[in-house]
Predict the structure of Aminopeptidase N.
Amino acid sequence: MFKKAVLIKNLILLIPILMILSCKQKEQAASQLVEDPHSFSKPSIAVVEHLDLDIKVDFESQQISGKAVWKINNKAKSNEIIFDDSQLNISKITLGAEEKETTFTYGEEKEFLGRPLKVVITPETKLITIYYTTNAQASALQWLNPHQTAGKKRPYLFTQSESIAARSWIPCQDSPGIRFTYNATVSVPNDLLALMSAENPEVKNSTGIYHFKQVHPIPSYLLALAVGDIEFKAVDERTGVYAEPSVLAKAVYEFADMGKMVNAAEKLYGPYRWGRYDLLVLPPSFPFGGMENPNLTFITPTIIAGDRSLVSIISHELAHSWSGNLVTNATWNDFWLNEGFTNYFERRIDEEIFGKQEAEMQEEFAKKALEDAVKEMGDTSKDTYLKTDYTGRNPDEGTNDIAYEKGYFFLRTIEEAVGREKFDTFLRGYFDGHAFQSVSTEQFLAYLNENLIKGNSDLEKKIRVNDWVYGPGVPSNIAYSKGLWAKDGKFAKIDHIASVWNKNELKDTSVLTKEIVTSNEKKFFINLLSPEMTAKRMADLDRQFNFTGSNNTDIQLAWYTLAIRHQYTAANKRIEDYLIENGRMWHIIPLYKEMIKTPEGLKRAKEIYKKARPNYHPMTYLAIDKFLK
Ligand code: BES
Ligand code: ZN
């Protein structure tokens, strides 16, 4: 009895000690921050925790100006804190609530990265106020004149911070391994609406001053702002769409399923933790299909096809609310943790909503995309490892189908090895256990070993983690739904029609439009066309399908690539218009690259680019300038 009591007493005494220890361990884990080669900041010495942003958006001078007030944790009681800066004009920096002016210097400027902003602080400093103005060349900002918008009357501004462009519009510690909450006050012309990656207003107010709050800690690449003649319409209680007035109704129709998508996602991997989930439809120069800014996914208007055929982009951006925004890649060398997980999650949502066949067909496209990427990069290239090393290069170069599709197939292969049920439980636990944290590839692998593989050598052999993560190309154990989709009548039929057509043996061409109807079926068919295509045969198909006149950007990309390759000049005008109107990087760069393969094509590409460049976002034109100028 006595002994037991002592034991209990000792245990009670032990609890606070253990708690202190565990806090210590947590702190240590946090201070064992992974080195980020794409940020100058030193978070293990002094790190930001909260931002109060107060800015004015001026369309005349095309400048954002104001102040960024940072709450910091000066962990090492240092006399210096380092921020990332790209071309900002900083006028003054002060310390503390009393705003005592301090001094600052810049380190050496590096290509892509900008320069370190070194601010003198004291060991006690908790608050830093940086007064600044953005540069006209800020790589995150696109200032649109009215002509470049749908309404044609008012200007528009939007940001794109991922990967390392946040530093061009806010002085920040621009690493995905560093998280902070934020509040913002944004002043804009009083007939425009401002929106951010935060809790948002639904209507304009007469002052033009808007307040924002992001209560969850996010990394800097998720800072976002858009300003324009924008209106809102709810889809259901927690989802809705923002767009220019003339686009809004079409957008609401197109994305009517977004509430269902959020429900499906929650059923898979746990609660949606961000409050509302809304979309902002941007003008066509938006450089991506979509960008997962928290609370407010930014999307290109080019996915409004009229038939809801391109909405899987929404599944993708929504999935980032778990993979990416909740659990974040620690550095851009771990980018597959963001995009590979998201592609996996995206296809699971689509399977719930559109059925297995749709998901399997996407997988089929994905496999081809991965094989093409490996072919292009070389099957021994280190850039085809999941864990990449983009030190000294722009991390945007790593945004390719290795991260997206090799990442996807790695997870798909684990799913196949352990079974879906187990894998889902594992993923759910992974998201919950790392919520609002950043994770490196190595940390993920340790978690995988501890929680799923658990030393089971059969599983180890089945999965071959090292071959996927630290090896090139596509490992031979890749799992996929080996053409199950093709056994279904529809796609097997199209496969057959394509092979007969490719041999020029299709007698009754009316079967083409009878059997190949939906956008996905058309895209599938175009992908099966033989490399021995000719311009004349493209004209034959165009008579049936009018692919050249398609408004589905996936079909346009696939068809225009063939048109350029096979000199099908009847599509020239459409291609030119497409390249001038549309700034979606990954849908226009492949076309320019296809063009420049011949001398005449190069000449034409230069002519078109001259007209198109002024419409593009800095991110887009900086990428194209590299191979065409
Ligand atoms: N986060 C990416 C966009 C991105 C990646 C911006 C890297 C900057 C650097 C976004 O989630 C994305 O993947 N967009 C795709 C969607 C597609 C895969 C469904 C796009 O824009 O095409
Ligand atoms: Zn993504």
Observations:
- Residues 2-31 form the longest helix (30 residues).
- The two ends are 86 Å apart (CA to CA).
- Residues 1-32 have pLDDT under 50 and may be disordered.
- Residues 162-163, 288-292, 313, 316-317, 320, 339, 396, 399, 586 surround BES (ligand 1) (CB under 6 Å).
